[in-house]
Amino acid sequence: MNAEERIHDLERQLHQLSSDLQHSQQQLRDLQQQLRLLKEQHGVPVLIQAEEAAPHAEQRKPQGIEHFIGLKLIHLVGIIVLVIGLSIGVKYAIDGQLISEMMRIVLAYSAGIVLFLLSVRLRKAYTFFSAILFSGSMASIYFTTYACFTYYHFISGGLAFAIMALLTVYTILTAIKYDRKEIAVIGMVGAYGIPFLISSNSDRFEQLFSYMLLINIGVVYLSFRRSWKLVGQLAMIITWTLVIGWAFMRSDQSQDQWIGLLFVIVFYLLFCINAMSFLIIRKQPLSFMESQQLLVNHVALFLASLCLFDVVWASGMVTVWTAGSALIVTALLPKEKFLQRGLVIVGLMILLLWISLRWDGLFVTLLWVLVSVLLFAWGIAGRQSWVRLTAVTLIGLTLLKLLVIDSGRFTPLQKIICYIAIGVLLLLFSFYYQRLGLAVGREKEKQS
């Protein structure tokens, strides 16, 4: 076959493939049309598929920075600035005694209702803009209800809880109906942040944390229901920032410790459920971000406990809990290697901190050496190369600590003991690798 015949043959094949592709696309469109008709008959909301929308994507695609600012950014910034402006305006009126307490509540509710009515009016023509207005209205009404109970005592705690619970449910259902993350994100940020424009709430932290817990329950459900994992992660960051900030800035009141710890534990468990919900219910493996969320949640638990109690007590408590969590994850989730290793490393760091704060001098160095020995033995027994490497790293840090920090404080006898212990341990580690080097190499190849 010459070159010309080969070219003709390739052209025929290309034409046949093009025909087959067009035929498949037509079949896909027919099936989508049938599926739409079935959904409409049964009252199921119909979502436009990406393939169906493709022919019109070019004319809908925003062009340039101006379209991005005009169609996306201005809406978000505008509603945030508006809500902040309303809050500052109310604060100014309060400081200047310009309006009565009842009028403040009436005006605040009126602003939220106006935003809500505008969102309903513009929903069909401007869905995204309507969603932004709706989220701003919910944030305003959330805060106003919170203020009615906390600051002015116009309503009872039960009524305030019932109103905010209904608002939470309604916001969740509307966010699902709009299918927009913006409603959840802006409404959540507004509901969290607006109270702090008015007061630090340091004298009513139980009410503030109960209010936050109610919002978080709704956010966690919405995060799972719509697979909006970012919403749950953002809620975790905001919540822990506020909780740790309160615990750090609070006055030394022992009666606040255990109530604060109760809220800390509840928030911790709630965000653990949030991070593992897809694994538990849908049997999906943890993503990298979900594993990171669990690790950050552990660190936040430690920091909050540290601010509530003394360092030794908090370090010991979280060390035990993290060790237990690592064992549970290892037993129940053997495939989640990143999470297992992360929990071990976090727990190890807190353990070393606890040892350093609980004891002093030679005893700390020797305990660090003991931890290194236990880790290395665990790595050998469990055939885990990363555990052995962690033990070697820890003994290296112990040696660095001895050279940089302890040399100026230890007596000659203490230095002799430490140097001999670390030297012998390093030689034993080296002997293990020399003797079993080939086996270790093969093990690493299998794990990789």
Automatic annotation (TrEMBL):
Residues 7-41 form a coiled coil. The keyword Transmembrane applies. The chain crosses the membrane at residues 69-90, 102-118, 125-145, 151-176, 183-202, 208-224, 231-249, 261-282, 294-318, 338-355, 362-380, 386-404, 416-433. It comes from Terrimonas ginsenosidimutans. The keyword Membrane applies. This is DUF2339 domain-containing protein. Keywords: Coiled coil, Membrane, Transmembrane, Transmembrane helix. InterPro entries: DUF2339_TM. It holds the Pfam family DUF2339. It comes from the Bacteria.
